[in-house]
Amino acid sequence: MSGPLRIVALYGTMALLILAVGYFQSWTVALAILNLSLISAVMALGVNIQWGYAGLFNIGIMGFAALGGVATVLVSMPPVEGALAAGGVNLGLAALAIVLTLAAALFVRERAPAHLRVQAGLATILVGYFLMRMFLDPASDAIEALNPSAAGYLGGLGLPVLFSWLVGGVFAAGAAYLVGKLTLGLKSDYLAIATIGISEIILAMLKNENWLTRGVKNVTSIPRPVPNERDLQAAAWVIDLADRFGTTATTAAAVIVRLGYACLFLAVLAVVFWLSERALKSPWGRMMRAIRDNRDAAEAMGKDVNRRHLQVFVLGSGVVGIAGAMLVTLDGQFTPAGYNPLRYTFLIWVMVIVGGSGNNWGAVLGGFLIWYVWIMAEPAGALLMSSLAQGLPADSWFRAHLMQAAPHLRLFLMGLILLSVMRFAPRGLIPEARGR
Amino acid sequence: MTDILNAFVLLANFVLIPALAYGAQLALGALGVTLIYAVLRFSNLAHGDLMAFGTAIVVLVTWWLQSSGIGIAPLPTALLALPVGILGAAALALITDRLVYRFYRRQRSPGVTFVMASVGVMFMYNAITRFIIGPDDRRFEDGGRFVVRVPEFREMTGLSEGLAIRTSQVITLVVMAVVTAAVFWFLQKTRTGKAMRAFSDNEDLALLSGINPDRVVAITWILVAALATIAGTLYGLDKSFRPFIYFQLLLPIFASAIVGGIGQPFGAIVGGFIIAFSEVMLTYAYKGFLAYLLPQEWAPAGLVQMLGTDYKFAVSFIILVVVLLVRPTGIFRGKVI
Predict the structure, then answer these.
(1) Nearest 5 degrees, angle CA B44-CA B45-CA B47?
(2) Which of A185, A245, A414, B327 is the most interior residue, by most CB within 10 Å?
(3) How far away is chain A from the Cα of B200, in angstroms, using its nearest Cα?
(4) B2-326, what's its fold?
(5) Cβ contact (<8 Å) for B311 and A208?
(6) Is the C-alpha dihedral spanning A189, B34, B271, B233 positive or negative?
């Protein structure tokens, strides 16, 4: 089977799989899977832009997703009263110190004699760092002292939460620009290690800068872009609808809310997908693939490889940031301690490789399929383990051990899937089109 | 005079000794990474999880030995369990190579394919380790805890600051010295070690001279598994064992290998100590140290800490970036990836 037919068949199978969950289990569960699949698909598109188009090996996805998530907090939460008055001036000065430091560092880089450039640059940054800390420390103490059990942070701007998706993308793209300036031009392995570092640093900041994110105290009850279930349950039209389908108002409300999210996510996915496809099929996309396939030849043709890499790094990270903001919006809370590289970086990579790197249809399918397997593997693992433990007495330690270990089976399965696809279908389920 | 002594005892207690032990652990980890890079030519992202797996076996065997009353007090029982852990990790590494990496080696796949495959391997190791020992903190240290205790030291010297040297720290340094000496002797003096270096230098030429590549690769994996298990066990004895921590060690370990010059065994050792010392020194609060040295009215009000301890990953990263920008080959002219 080739081309479009294969795509239709695979997407149809995927749709059937999700519908089966709705039919046999429950529609709320099916919609929950669908929502996270949509977000995963957007994230996978972001990775595909970097890896599939340009061959950039970024394994710091988690950090950019978390940055997108923090945008949701900063945009949509109501501002904390008095926080700005307590630390605003010092925060402003700290920000000014950062800007001045960067400017000075750039100036030094341009003007200092070549043999002193590195030392002078480092010294400038060190001085700037202390200057920044001088203002930041009192500011963060003052803000964190304000009603620490309920607030203790700056709060947000109180703007509509949907706006934060865009801001999340901008945050991640901005960070990617700074990081890319430093690390692109490194070959693949170095870039990989550097991006792991970046994501760990971003996470460390989000966990510890309590004045900004409340750190491990988490930000909860983030405003939602869809109505609340409790309000819906009481609405006359929902009760009416529930009667017609022969279900309870609670279920109907839950389904409606999740459908609302699904529509929003689908819209984002559609826009990102359309733009990515357009970009891939444009001269820009052909240039990217040329750089990916033969960097030296592309360079010889006069393409500025580092600039193009920076561009694609920023774009891809921006898409990941949007998905990160969507994820936090769906959860309704921001929990920095919940980010884990296996789930937020490497799982996304599995999606792209399994779906077919370089192919947007493939990346989206991978997002859906792998998320589905990831969710389904947990009950399947528990089932497998309990059937293994069937002969054992109920109080045996080995039985308890087996049941406890069940959730880890899905990590094993993910590794197995990735390695099998790499071995037997290295171009993925929907391979990149290679034509004239 | 006493003040100056006190200040330096304080520094030794909280910076010098912990950084030496941590540096030794990083160095052993980085040595493994660098050997894989030298012989198999890829960055093994599953290295942290190989460490975790080997250590998990050591922990299990240690518990079994403890429960049957076998021990070598005052040394920790874990040293007795180490060979079993090494055997387990070596078996796992060899099976992985046979099932995963060998295929790509025969295909002569580009390095990035290997790295990607090591991500899959990482997932599976992760699952296996959590499967056999669970994701939680495990303590397995026993035997005499301290070589020098704080009160004893105070009594001995009459200083107000105390110095504590833990058994695990001394063992870490001794084991590290013995193991690196053995590895260097192996690489320099034995036939197999020379074959490994030749293979690393120029694969085709080595093949032409009749070196058996499968044998070289197998021996590399065994060596790396041993180094990983030893590094992981020492780290676990010094701090505590938790699978996820070992994954996070990947960044400082790679930073060590790259700073020293990847593919250069000696560079890995030096890099390990550079990273460890920078990390500990930059995250240490110098308030107490300065209070001893400076006149009373100058005593600092704040903690005088460059970076919070939670930002220790930033140190590895910054050093990594600076080295890559200034001297991409690392200190000892390793390979440019």
Answers:
(1) 75
(2) A414
(3) 18
(4) ABC transporter involved in vitamin B12 uptake, BtuC (1.10.3470)
(5) yes
(6) positive
